[in-house]
Design brief:
It comes from Metallosphaera tengchongensis. The protein is mainly α and about 525 residues long. A hairpin with a 2-residue loop joins strand 1 and strand 2. It has one domain: Sodium/glucose cotransporter (Up-down Bundle). It has a two-stranded antiparallel ribbon with strand order 1-2.
């Protein structure tokens, strides 16, 4: 089964660049040497990353393999609603500038490695810290699994293009080998390996996005042709890929979906920097000012994301690529097919490798973030650990977690990972009062905030179940309300906040006073 211009040259470029990627991953243990038997050196890169590396590292968190696959796919199969990703990332970076420098400062002053470390002292509650840590772990597993789904979306056409057959077994073996390499250099290099490979990954991603968004419109009639073809063919695409009737709107958003668009943007913006990998990357900065500079430049990635979303419409200008997506029966092949039918063979190898390692680098950062949480805020709460044991245990858990995510993808349909990631985003938002509000006030009571978290989690699950009752599985993260469909994360967060605030007011009236373990000056300035 030939697929576009993919051939042996494409595969050769892919393999050579992967070898370079692996070299950087292992060599990183020698870069800015530190005692990797300490968890802050292994898991936070020794807090030595400058503004440019912070920019690349956080960009690696944003431009993941699944982002590269999912955003254009959603644009093609659902329409303009999924352009919400553009304001979402813009708002998320604003939220990051308000919260991450404060978290970095108190973490440096108090020796914290995770956000849950801060929560434990701020609220004087180890159970709240454990709850925050476990929420992060649960939310991160399907997130890593989705990176693997994105990687599969380029492996399948690469193998099919070179061999002429679609071979799942070959694809699975390739994934296992790639994860063995990833696990090995993450074990030895920690976050340093993710940072250096993230630079290579982001450079290749930018080359891919800019080349496609410039060359394809110039060669195939531009976006005028794409939108014209979309107007006439979107009904067919909808029928082929969604099994539903009617056309898809690309040029404008239905007024009925405006509440959904706004709430998805805002809720996703709140969630992004609550994920362990985003916090972990922020805490790796060398100082607060460099973190601010690196974060303030991240909207450049938002521009790239907007261009990437347009791939879901641009594919209409290339009939062969669109037919390939319809034949394969999944919107996840939008970008791989668009590249395969429009770019030269050597560039296909480069672009596919960019997307492939776009899954590996975030997977490394996510696994490190999860390992830090489990060791520091769960295991260590019940068993005293020496620094070397703490770091070694984090390395082992990081490795296990990567292969747990890989096994998850192998054992269950990809749609399950997608569905659970929707739920993960809703759940992680319930940690906002403890983390974000805790950075600005000590007036929230630990028990009340824990109760708010619990009610937020329960209401999240209840709303998701009710919203998806007619599907039988998780297909939507929106809940119908009198003002229109709203993102469930925001609805549950509202309930969470009400319980936390009212509960704290009651506790204060009964004589409770805030903990003094974290002083205001430890959050606002370096000591």
């Amino acid at each position: 089964m030939a697929l576009g211009n993919i051939d042996a040259v494409s595969l050769a470029v892919f393999l050579v660049l992967f070898a370079i990627f692996a070299f950087f991953g292992f060599w990183a243990s020698r870069w800015r040497r530190g005692d990797l038997s300490r968890i802050d050196e292994w898991g936070l890169g020794g807090r030595k990353l400058g503004w440019l590396l912070v920019w690349f590292l956080m960009g690696a968190d944003l431009y993941t393999a699944y982002t590269f696959i999912a955003v254009p796919s959603a644009m093609l199969t659902v329409g303009s609603l999924y352009f919400f990703a553009v304001p979402y990332v813009a708002w998320a970076f604003g939220i990051a500038l308000l919260t991450m420098p404060r978290l970095w400062t108190v973490s440096r002053n108090k020796g914290y490695v995770t956000a849950a470390d801060f929560v434990k002292d701020r609220f004087d509650s180890r159970w709240l810290a454990i709850a925050i840590a476990l929420t992060g772990v649960v939310a991160e597993l399907p997130y890593i699994a989705l990176q693997i789904v994105g990687m599969q979306a380029v492996l399948a056409p690469m193998i099919a293009g070179v061999t002429g057959v679609v071979s799942k077994s070959v694809s699975d073996i390739a994934l296992i080998i790639a994860f063995i390499v990833l696990a090995a250099f993450t074990f030895t290099s920690g976050l340093r390996g993710a940072a250096l490979t993230g630079v290579m990954k982001d450079i290749l991603i930018w080359i891919t996005v800019l080349a496609v968004i410039i060359i394809v419109p110039l060669s195939y009639g531009g976006f005028a042709t794409a939108f014209s073809n979309a107007l006439h063919n979107s009904g067919t695409v909808n029928l082929e890929l969604n099994h539903a009737k009617g056309s898809i709107l690309y040029g404008y958003l239905s007024p009925k979906l405006i509440p959904a668009y706004f709430s998805l943007s805002l809720g996703s913006a709140f969630a992004l920097y609550l994920y362990p990998h985003a916090i972990n990357g922020s805490l790796s900065s060398e100082d607060k000012e460099k973190l601010k500079l690196g974060t303030s430049l991240l909207p450049i990635y938002g521009v790239g994301l907007a261009l990437l979303a347009l791939f879901g419409v641009l594919i209409y200008a290339v009939p062969a690529a669109l037919n390939s997506v319809l034949k394969l029966g999944a919107g996840t092949f939008v970008v791989p097919s668009l590249i395969a039918y429009t770019m030269p063979d050597w560039f296909i190898g480069l672009a596919y490798l960019a997307i492939f390692i776009g899954g590996l680098v975030p997977a490394a950062i996510m696994a490190i973030g999860v390992a830090n949480l489990l060791v520091r805020n769960v295991i260590k709460e019940f068993k005293q650990l020496q620094p070397r044991t703490e770091a070694n245990l984090a390395k082992i858990i990081s490795t296990v977690f990567k292969f747990l995510a890989l096994g998850f993808v192998f054992l269950v349909p990809a749609s399950y990972a997608i569905q659970l990631q929707l739920l993960g985003g809703i759940l992680i938002t319930q940690t906002l009062p403890a983390i974000f509000l805790g950075l600005y006030t000590n007036k929230l009571n630990g028990k009340a905030t824990l109760a708010g978290w619990a009610i937020g989690i329960i209401s999240s699950l209840a709303l998701v179940i009710e919203a998806n009752a007619k599907f039988g599985v998780i297909k939507t993260s929106l809940y119908a309300t009198p003002v229109g469909p709203l993102y469930i994360a925001l609805l549950a967060l509202g309930i969470n906040l009400v319980v936390s605030v009212i509960g704290s007011a009651i506790a204060y009236g009964m004589g409770w006073r805030p903990s003094q373990k974290v002083k205001a000056e430890e959050i606002t300035k370096e000591l």
